[in-house]
Amino acid sequence: MKAGFFFSILLSLLAQLSLAQYQYQALMNYLESRMTAIEERISVWNEQNNRYNIDLKKFRLQATDLLEKLGKEHVKLQEDLEGAKLQVDRVEREMDFMETKHPPKPCVKAADKIVEQKPVVTERKKKDEFFEVSVCVDLVSNIRAMKILKRLGSTKGVWTKDARTAKVYIFNGTSDDTLYEFKSVKQLSASSGMSKSKQITLPSAWNGTGHAVYDGFLYYITETSELKVNKFHLENRSLVDNAVLPVQEQVSVYSLNPETIVDLIADEEGLWALYAIGTINLAKMDSDTLDIEHMWETSCSRINAEAAFFVCGTLYVVYNTRPPSRAKVQCVFDVNDMVTPEEAPLFYFPRRFGTHSSLKYNPVEKQVYAWDDGYQILYRMSLKKKLFAIMPPPEE
Ligand SMILES: *[C@@H]1O[C@H](CO)[C@@H](O)[C@H](O)[C@H]1NC(C)=O
Ligand SMILES: *[C@@H]1O[C@H](CO)[C@@H](O)[C@H](O)[C@H]1NC(C)=O
Ligand SMILES: *[C@@H]1O[C@H](CO)[C@@H](O)[C@H](O)[C@H]1NC(C)=O
């Protein structure tokens, strides 16, 4: 009786083991064949470097999918899978090497010091390239340096620089119909108050600190009975378009900045909107038509959040306390699921006394334009590459 019982358990264990072993072997074969294919393709890298990136991404996703399933089945397999991971890493290192020799379309242009950039002259990307956000694999690892530029205006506000035209914009306070344009950060530094600026008056007042400027356009939020995104051409002083956001309850996206219901980010990929439905949600919009293309529910809480910034498809939410202490990045969300919890950077801002009312990342300069209790601050970010470490998901 008993022996038969144990025997049947043993049999079923053996069956499970050999199934796992079989799947492992199939996976290794699959990895090997993909690896060979990739290595062959490296030789024709020059012509294909762009497509190659996309293939690698697909392969990574497929490989992770398989690996995740297997990871659940057998602990021993996990160790063996590390071997497969090393192979993937090796190819990635080769990729990195090839990429440095023949850089693919970068998401950003490097600038090495806290200095002014020249206006960017490349053509704006077409909208159907949305998922190319994944080709950009920079991950913020830390804050390398800080520069306090000025103290201007009220406690809350926004300062930001158009990453394409290099002009600087000041939004003083959390609700007004006027903004100030400076030709450069240097001009702003030299200006006493807004004296050297060009004043721009909008057809309707903005609310909060969620404004974004990109490629000569201002995207701003008006809070009436409905929540509207407005697109304004700064040179022509004309409202080009607007759209109502499908947000029922007007809850602030960051609890420590109650005036900001929606935070907008404009970059090469388009327009991104952050708003709260329970947790912080993210929508990807077409910056030409203001259509919503995609929505994500991040797991980042709005409670004790003060601001956020967005780099290469990854959202970094910054938290603080009341009264303010040290701001820290405590929640990270990647739209392509390319950042594992283990490599998600959690870091502190330099010790300061205030609360950030806005953090605007400039991808060309790799620095954040921050408004901290009336101070205009630049945070220079250290970047590394997303590793996309392969590991089984945590047990539920
Ligand atoms: C900014 O706004 C505050 C409050 O509305 C006002 O007192 C201050 O004069 C403004 N600053 C400038 C430089 O316009
Ligand atoms: C938005 O701005 C307008 C104009 O300054 C102001 O009247 C209104 O109270 C603001 N709304 C909120 C919710 O702060
Ligand atoms: C700005 O004005 C110029 C000249 O009137 C016009 O050609 C151009 O299309 C306008 N741009 C936008 C975005 O409205």
Automatic annotation (TrEMBL):
It comes from the Eukaryota. One of its GO terms (cellular component) is extracellular space. Residues 67-101 form a coiled coil. Keywords: Coiled coil, Secreted, Signal. One of its GO terms (biological process) is signal transduction. PROSITE patterns: OLF. It is found in: Secreted. Residues 1-20 form the signal peptide. This is Olfactomedin-like protein 3B. Pfam families: OLF (PF02191). Residues 135-385 form the Olfactomedin-like domain. It comes from Bagarius yarrelli (Goonch). Transmembrane segments: none annotated.
